[in-house]
Structures are given as structure tokens and as C-alpha cells.
Amino acid sequence: MIQIYDTTLRDGTQREGISLSCDDKLRIARRLDELGVTFIEGGWPGSNPKDAEFFERARDIPWQHAKIAAFGSTCRVNGGPEDDANIQALLEARTPVCTVVGKTWTLHVSEVLRTTREENLRIIEKSLAYLRAQGRRVVYDAEHFFDGYRADPEYALETLRAAVKGGAETLVLCDTNGGSLPWQIGEIVRKVQAAVRHPLGVHCHNDSECAVANSLAAVHEGAVQVQGTVNGYGERCGNANLSSIVPALELKMGLRCLPEGKLKTLFEVAHFVAEVANLAPDEHLAYVGKSAFAHKGGIHVAAMRRSETSYQHVDPALVGNQMRVVVSELSGRGNLLSKAEEWGLKVGEGTDVAAVLNDIKALEAKGFSFEAAEASVALMFARRKPGYRPPYELVDFLVAVEHRSGRGLFAEAMVKVRVEGEVHHTAAEGDGPVDALDAALRKALAGRFPQIADLHLSDYKVRILDGKNGTAAVTRVLIDMQKGKRRWSTVGASPNIIEASWIALVDAVEYGLTLADN
Amino acid sequence: MIQIYDTTLRDGTQREGISLSCDDKLRIARRLDELGVTFIEGGWPGSNPKDAEFFERARDIPWQHAKIAAFGSTCRVNGGPEDDANIQALLEARTPVCTVVGKTWTLHVSEVLRTTREENLRIIEKSLAYLRAQGRRVVYDAEHFFDGYRADPEYALETLRAAVKGGAETLVLCDTNGGSLPWQIGEIVRKVQAAVRHPLGVHCHNDSECAVANSLAAVHEGAVQVQGTVNGYGERCGNANLSSIVPALELKMGLRCLPEGKLKTLFEVAHFVAEVANLAPDEHLAYVGKSAFAHKGGIHVAAMRRSETSYQHVDPALVGNQMRVVVSELSGRGNLLSKAEEWGLKVGEGTDVAAVLNDIKALEAKGFSFEAAEASVALMFARRKPGYRPPYELVDFLVAVEHRSGRGLFAEAMVKVRVEGEVHHTAAEGDGPVDALDAALRKALAGRFPQIADLHLSDYKVRILDGKNGTAAVTRVLIDMQKGKRRWSTVGASPNIIEASWIALVDAVEYGLTLADN
């Protein structure tokens, strides 16, 4: 059993652009506990007062699997833990586990701590011993271990021995600057194990794009704990990515690290964390990316249809992901048909597939992209089917955003549609121009289509395709609409962001009123 | 000297969302040649007719460093290369190098090719021998080599021997499904080298997030060629990332792979390729990401100021990148001052730094993010400086987008500003609402500030912060404005995308009229 030590809530939040509220942190912690990680590092109470609230509230939660850990550094030089604010903050967090980081690298001892090698050994041992005496389990993070070992192996080992004397249950070797390569990590872990017989862990950063490989190399040499973050979030190039490490340990190295049956929730957890952290999920992540098992190349798709395993390193279902066929301008008829199948579209009854393919290519040339907009493609199939009648036609629209000093900001829209020959002309306000258009369109259609009230606009994404043209650049809009549990995506593109949004919105509603129920 | 074989233009374009015109491909190829890679794989003439034009036009370019390669597969089973359309397309590309991919894995021989092991060996040897006879240098890509070797090592070696008989100058072992781990790659490369004494290369995919480590492991065991793509673009999780592999080879393994002095252009090349491929650069990429050497955590920044090397694995200048200090809500006064220094802001003359810090935190709570908007921060400093007078005040604005059947789409804006007590009230049209606002604002200010004509809006980015609220979500807008070579960024955020854009636009112009020249 390998210990998974998650530091998404501490080291992960060092990533540029991440900022988590206390509620966000608790939501993520609950999901990590459900996933079954061994430790959840909640924060650094000594450096970030906001974290105190997290530990306060975490205490009342009945954790099923995980132990909550608080992070802090060794006490000040020439001082004792008992009167050290940072160590006291660790105690006040009242977590079962305290993780203490100390210096390994002589450069840091002299340049950053500005003290002697002996004093550094003293504060490591004393800080840990003090927390142990208060009944805490103590994990020791040896900062810059690999750089420090390269500079002075004997002193690096002494710092570990000081930590063992202090009562550390695990010695975590940190590649803090992320500069090491896998065989270097492997060799040093092997030597440390021979010199210091004590459970080892590893904490890697991704500055050489080797953090996952480095973590796996350490486990391959006998490390029993891996520290990392969901999706590899972290400062600079990120921390070791647990979303890639956990499946490798379980599926490729045969090492259990999660409770039975939890691995298949990984995709969901990875996306949940991205959502709460308010970051667009990286679709190209190993195992958990939406594209991780997506096939675009023509031959690949042909081969896939003959032998599923021939182009997949693992079964996507094992991590809760799925195989996808991508529609793109590289696609032939084969991809398009697989895609139609995948979406359960009834093709064939006189549908002109070649015409649909041409429609797609023409729109892609204008900046549309259908890879994530299956509902738009479904509508294109439907419109090429003899006898399809759209539920409504758009006549006109007008949207205005106005700022008047003293009175503030307004967004209003007017929409005119024709339903079975009859014109409906309405207006509405909204939080912004697209919101106002959405409201006006619903008003215009509500009479003939009361079920429109069940359609819920659940996501709205905007991408500027060619920054070089400034505000005249082509804008691509993706809209997700929902009806109960059913969810679909549509796309629009135009140099005018309002028009792009309008196209996606109109398709999303048309799909909801026609095909969503099939 | 390690050979760098770039397949950005072939395997890289398999990434979802990438589509390159022939001009794009030629622009990228020229930059790769300047960078000094050994081979540039331009495409697959047999599968993608559009590539024929690339090879046609590439012939007239005087390449300084790189050899152009065309990619194709072995000839059809039970046929000969002389009447094989795909092999003939390779010849017609008239490149100095042809790269031929063949089957290693018995599963693929029987399931995908549906032929015998002997016939597969025959088509490998014959296809290569035919191209050699036409005077081409031939690289052999052994598809699924590592999976194939695990399934049947002896047959995997036979396919390589067939390629050697056919005249391959290099045997490239491909981890096509990207499922291998570094020590597995290392061990197999070692064994292959012992069995087949011939120059080896490696072609990895990133499905285990180990493509970089796997490529380096192969070189560590003696491989002399690495195939990959700029920024790791490629199908699914991408190809091996040359932007991480090249610096590791040169800076960490002491192996030369680029001409003298070229490594420091890597950052520029990586961003150029992202730009041409029309993908937002991943700021967290190793070595070439904007965040790769950015420091956010308070202690780190304090330590950085004491010892530059203590938190950097390599000197960022070696790859053309630079160290950055990040402004964020985690920042203390220290970060903010370092940042101010970095931007050459004159702070201190009575500027209320604490107040600026509070302004930043208040706006970040509303969805602003200043990490990429140094001009907005500079303005906040300026506004907190006694005696700062903004060049103009905004009074009102109105923007309307209108679609009328038969007449099409219009975007118009009205702007009212006050300059030194005098009100200027103007209107203008644009391609979209923000473009119209930009035009109207320029008109309103042109009288008093003719220099506004030199300000050029060079980039416009939109990010929806909280998709869950649909069209009512908070929108963040980043605007880049330029004056000659000087370029600055501003940010705006609001549930109304027009207002968010307006805030960023107004700041960008105010900065351009006041601080840009200091």
C-alpha cells in the first residue's frame, strides 16, 4: 500500500491564478477523502491565517479515509519550538498529522537561514520532537534534498538522521526546484535507503517535465509515500501530478494506493477540482483529460474499429474516462459516422452525409470548431434530413448595453421570431448582452413552447481565435444547455461576439426543443 | 551530437484543435530551421494531399540546418512499393529524407494489417530498399515497438533487422500508445542495442505523462535521435515535448543537439509556434512557460532576493526565459515591491503601497487578476500617488448590436468623455461591440490627444470565470495595447462582458496616454 499525500490545498494553491476560499478547500478535501487518499495537507497555518478557519472547520468532519495534515517549517534559528509562532500555529491547527519542512542544502543553511550546519540539525530535531511530544504524527519534508545531496551527501543524510531522532514517521525527499531526472532520483533514493533505514517519501516539482516519472522512479526504488496535487497544480510548472501517478501505480506497477473501486472516480475528481479551482480543465492530461483517449487521425480510427486495445495504453473506463472519436477538418466520412454512432444519431434514412461534411468544413473555415459541440453537429444532420422543420425562425434581434453616470449599467435585448407563420416580438433585460438575449428569446418562444422553461443554460465559454486582430478578432463561443440530467453543447463563431453567442444560443434552444428528447 | 527530429508539422497537427495552413507550416519550418533541429518532418503526402503543396514549396527554400523529411507507411501487403500509391507519394515529395513506419507488434500484424509475420517483414524491407534505391536517406519508425517487444521480443527484433536490410540509417523505437515507464524504456533500449548494433532513435507519446522522461531515458541508454514536437503538441496527451527535451539534453546531460547559441531562442520559438498554431501558450510548461520561473509564495520571494540560484533549477536566460515575481492575493508588500521594481515603477514618493495592496485584493475578489496585467497595477500605483490627474474621465457609453433580416448585422457605440472640463460626445461603428467602443473612444479623445493614433490594440482575451452561472457568469477580459515596440496589458472583470472589456480598454488607453512613455 503506497501512501498518497495530497497537497493540492497547500502547494497546489501556489499556482498562478488559483485562489481557493475556505468553502472551496473543504469541498475539495471532502472529494479527496471520498477518493481515498491517505493524507490531505490543508494549508500552512503559520504563513496564511486564512488556513486557521479551514482546520477549525475540518475538525468537525467525519473523515472516512484521509488524515488531515498541517504544514509548517522548523522553528527559528537560535530559538525553541515552544516560543515559535509558526510551530505554535501548527499545534493550534489540532490536526492528527504535522508536516515539517527543514533545510538539507548547505547553500540554503548558510545563504537563506544564515546559520551553522549544527544549528540547522538542532532545529530539525527539536521542532519534530516537540510536536511528537504533543502527540502529533510527524512527516518530515527534506527541502531541496536532491540538490543538497549532490552538494554534500553526508550532511544531507545527517539532516535525515536528525529528523529520525526527532520522531519523523516518514522522511520525504523533496526535489523542490524540480531539476532532477528520473535515474538521478532513483540512484539517490537507493543510496539513502541503504544509509538510513527508514520509510521514505518523495515530493517532486515539474520544472523538468519529469515530476511524474521522478515520483514513480522513487517508488520503484522503494519509497512508500508520494506527495503531489490533483492535475499537477502548483507553483511554476506545477507539482507532481497525482492524476497521472495514481493510475500508474495501480494499473502499471500493481501497487494499491486507493481503496477498492475508487480509481474509476478519478476523472470525475480531477474535473471537480478544476471546476472548484476555477481553471479550465487541461483536456490533454494523461488518463483524466477529455482528449486522453480521443482519436482524430484517419488510420487510427479505422484501426480502432478493428481492435480497441491496439491504440490505447489502458482501458479508459478504469479511470472513469472514455474513448472518443473527434470530428475535425481532418476527418473523413468514417470519423463522422463513428461520431454519429457515438452520439446515437440515426443516420442513413436519406441523410446526405457528404453535404453535412461540407457544411462542417465550410463553418470550420469561419472559426467554428465542432470537437466539443455535438449538438450543433446533430442539428446539421437533422437539417440535411428530408422533411426536417425547425421549430422557429429568427427574424431580427437588437441588444444594447448602456452606462449612464449616476444610473449605472443596463443590458437589454429585443428579439423577433416566427413560429409557424406567426411573429413573436419581445424584449427583456439581463446581467449582460447574452443573458438579455437568452431572456428575450425564451419570452418569445414560451407561448408556443412552454417546455423551454426546463432548458437551463449551464455553461458559456468564449475563445478569441486570433488575438492579432485585437477586438476585430474572430470569437468562438461554446454554450452548454441542460434539461434535467441531459446536457448538450453548441458552438458559434463570428468577429462579433454577440453574433457568435447568438448562433450558439439559438442552436442550443433548437436542439432542446427538437432532438434532446430522442 | 544528438539528432533532433521535429514532427510538429505531422504528428503535432493530430492534436485536437490544431489545423495549419500550408503557409503556417512553412513559417514554422523556417523557425525550426533557424533553431537548428536536424530533421523537419513536413507531413504525410500519402494520406493528406494538402501536404504535397508544402513539399513543393519547401524545395525552393535554402535550409541552413535541417533536412526535410516526408512520412509514410510501408507498402500494402502482397504488393510492391513500385505500384503503391503511398510510397509513390513519398517519392513525389522529393525530400532528402523519407521516414517509413512499419509494424512491430504481432497483434497489429494479425488484427490491423491482417497478414502473416513473414509478409510484414517483407514489406518493411522492400519499402525501405525501394526508397534507398531512389537515393533517399531512410529513417525507420518501428510503430508500437515497446508494446510489441513486450509481446514478442524476438519478432520485434526481426522487424528491426528487416529495416536494416532495407537500408534504414536509424531505427526509431516508438512508444505509440504512450504507455511505457522510463525504466522499461531504458531496459528495452539497452537490450535492443546489444541485439542490433545500429543507430537508435526514440519516438514517445505522453499518455503516461512520461514522454519527456522516456525520451531522455532512451538517450541515457545510447539512443542518438529524439523525435518530438514543439510544446509537446500531438494527439491525445501529445508527443514528447522537444521544448523540455532539448534543454535537458544540453544543460543537464551535457549533450549538444542545437548549433552554438541557439538554445537561448527556445522560449521565442515555443511561443511563435503556439501563436501560429493559434493555441494559447501553456504558461506552466517547463523551461518555456511564462510561469516556469515565476515566484508567488512569500518565503520563496524573500529567499530569491537573498540567493537567485536557491530556487531555480537552471538560469532562465539560457532558454530565453526570465524570472518573474507574481502579484496575487497571496502576495505581501514584498512581492508587490519586487514587482514594482521589475516593472521599473518609481514607488516611494508618497505612494500608499498598503492602499494599492487593498485595491488589488478588493478587485481580485470581483474576478480581476493582475498576474498578466502590469499596466493596470502601474495605474493603481499612479492613482495612489499624490497629484496624479487622469487624462480624461468617462461620462457615459452606449453600445448596440443589431441584426435585421435582409440588412444584416451592425455594431455601433456612443461614448461621452470629459477632458479638462470639456465634454466630447461621439459615435462609431465596428466589427463588434468592443471594436465599436474602441473606435468611439478614439474619436472622442483624438482632438486633445492626437498621439492616440499610435496606440494599437494588439490582443484581446476573454475568460469566463464561473461557467456554472451560464451567461450571467463573471467575465474577465485582458487587453494588450502597443505603441511602437512598447506593449502593455490591462484587465477588466464584470458579469457584463461589455463592461469588463470597457474597463480594460479605458485603462489600456489611459496607460498609453500617461505612463507608457516613462
UniProtKB/TrEMBL annotation, chains A, B:
PANTHER family: (R)-CITRAMALATE SYNTHASE, ALPHA-IPM SYNTHASE/HOMOCITRATE SYNTHASE. SUPFAM superfamilies: 2-isopropylmalate synthase LeuA, allosteric (dimerisation) domain, Aldolase. It comes from Anaeromyxobacter oryzae. Its EC number is 2.3.3.21. Keywords: Amino-acid biosynthesis, Branched-chain amino acid biosynthesis, Isoleucine biosynthesis, Transferase. PROSITE patterns: AIPM_HOMOCIT_SYNTH_1, PYR_CT. InterPro entries: 2-isopropylmalate_synth_dimer, AIPM/Hcit_synth_CS, Aldolase_TIM, Citramal_synthase, LeuA/HCS_post-cat, LeuA_allosteric_dom_sf, PYR_CT. This is Citramalate synthase. Residues 2-273 form the Pyruvate carboxyltransferase domain. It catalyses: pyruvate + acetyl-CoA + H2O = (3R)-citramalate + CoA + H(+). It holds the Pfam family HMGL-like. Pathway: Amino-acid biosynthesis; L-isoleucine biosynthesis; 2-oxobutanoate from pyruvate: step 1/3. Belongs to the alpha-IPM synthase/homocitrate synthase family. It is an enzyme of class 2 (transferase). Gene3D superfamilies: 1.10.238.260, 3.30.160.270, Aldolase class I (3.20.20.70).
